[in-house]
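pipeline stage [seq->struct] | target=Transcriptional regulator | organism=Legionella oakridgensis ATCC 33761 = DSM 21215 | residues=93
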Amino acid sequence: MYHRGQIRCFLKIAEFASFTRAAHALHMTPTAVSKQIKNLEEAIGEQLLLRTTRHVSLTEFGALFYERCKLIEEQIHSLDRFIESKKKFPKVN
């Protein structure tokens, strides 16, 4: 099973095309980010990224997965904002 932290790592790597830059943005080490991606790829049974010594790109499946993950992440952000707004204005009985 995969989890949100793995998805966040994947999205950042896709955004920056770099494990190092993604790790920096996530306040993680590149090794930790790499492990998250390895575990994600194992969990879903598909390779998401093509890695070379200087470049990272999405596989065909990775590009499709990225689009869906982006939509889900946007929905989660929307849900988080909704919850926060309800905390600011508690229900009055």
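stage status: PASS
auto-comment: The mean pLDDT is 94. The longest helix spans residues 60-88.
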